[in-house]
Amino acid sequence: MKKMDIKGIGMTSQRTRDRLIDRLQQKGIANSEVLRVMRLVPRHLFVDEALASRSYEDSALPIGHGQTISQPYIVARMTELLLENAGNENNTIEKVLEVGTGSGYQAAVLGGLVKELHTVETIGALYRHSRDILYKLGYRNVRTHLGDGSWGWPEAAPYEAIMVTAAAEEIPPALIQQLKIGGAMIIPVGQKQNEQKLQQVIRTTELQYKVTELEKVIFVPLVPES
Ligand code: SAM
User: Fold this and answer.
1) Residue 136: how many CB atoms within 10 A of its CB?
2) Residue 115 resides in a domain
3) What is the CA(148)–ligand 1 centre distance, in A?
4) What is the CATH number of the domain that holds 122?
5) 3 state DSSP class of 42
6) Where does the pLDDT of residue 9 fall: very low under 50, low under 70, confident under 90, or very high at 90 and above?
7) What is the reported pLDDT for 142?
8) Is residue 82 a part of any domain in this protein?
9) How far apart are CA 182 and CA 161, in angstroms?
C-alpha cells in the first residue's frame, strides 16, 4: 500500500527534506522509489521536538531510552538493498519484517514501499510512541508489535524480506527460518560497536543461505529480552 496521508503535516519542512534527498543522492543512493518516499516522510515528527531542527541532518539522533533514530543515509541504503534483493519488478515487496521499531521512521519509509510491514520493538514506551505516530500518519499497512524481535514475528511469517536495525552478535536463526526461500535480510552484525558490518543474507534453499558482508556501520545492540 503506497498511501501516505500526511497532507498538512510537516509540509513546511519540504525544502529541508529536499536538501537531505539531494545529499543522499550525492552519497550514492540511486533507487528512485526510496528517494521518492524519503522525500515525503516527515522525519521531524519521529524525533523529540527539541531536536526537530536537526531532523533533516544526515545523522543519527537520540530518541530516549538509550536508543537512536538511524542516520537517513543508513535508512536509505538498507531500504535500497532490500528492494534490490527482494523487490518485484514494480520495486515493491509483499510482506516485510523490521526488528527494532525505535522511533518508527524506518517503518514509515518501508510502509510507503511495501504491501505489509510487521515491526517489532522491545521497549514498551518506544513501541507505544511509534505505534501512535504511525497510526496518526495513516500507515494502515504497518503492524507494530511489542516483543523480542530476535525471535522474529512468527505469527505473520514467512517474509520476503527482513530488516534488522540493531546490531546482533550473530544472525538469529529464527529470522532465517522466517525468511521465504529467495528472500533477503539486511542485518548489522558484530560483537563490538567498532566491528559491526552490514550483512546481506539470501535464503537460497530450505537449509541454506548466502551471506555477503557489506559496509561498516554503527548500531545500538540487539538486546534479547531478559
Ligand atoms: N529503526 C529505528 C528507527 O527508524 O528509529 C531505529 C532503531 S534503533 C537504532 C534500534 C532499536 O532496536 C531500538 O529501539 C531498540 O530498543 C530496539 N531493539 C533492541 N533489541 C531489540 C530486540 N531484541 N527486539 C526488538 N527491538 C529491539
Assistant:
1) 12
2) yes
3) 10
4) 3.40.50.150
5) coil
6) very low
7) 98
8) yes
9) 9
* pLDDT per position as a tens digit, 145-194: 999 999 999 999 999 999 999 999 999 999 999 999 999 999 999 988 78
- Tens of pLDDT, residues 32-43: 999 999 999 999
Instruction: Give domain status of residue 17, yes or no.
Output: no
Structural domains of the chain, count: 1
142-146 and 67-69 beta bridge pairing: unpaired
Domain that holds residue 169: 60-216
**Residue 64: is its pLDDT beyond 60?**
yes
Report the separation in Å between the CA atom of 99 and the middle of ligand 1, taken as the mean of its atom positions. 6
Q: Is residue 163 within 8 Å of 141, Cβ to Cβ?
A: no
CA of 199 to the centre of ligand 1 (A): 17
Q: What is the maximal distance between C-alpha atoms in the chain?
A: 50
Ligand 1: which of 67, 70, 75, 131 to mutate, judged by most atoms within 8 Å of the beta carbon?
Answer: 67
Q: Please choose from 48, 77, 223 the residue to mutate so as to test ligand 1's pocket, defined by most ligand atoms within 8 A of CB.
A: 223
161 in a domain, yes or no?
yes
Q: Which of 70, 103, 130, 150 is catalytic?
A: 70
Residues near ligand 1 with C-beta < 6 Å?
67-70, 99-100, 102-103, 105-106, 120-123, 126, 148-150, 165-166, 219-220, 222-224
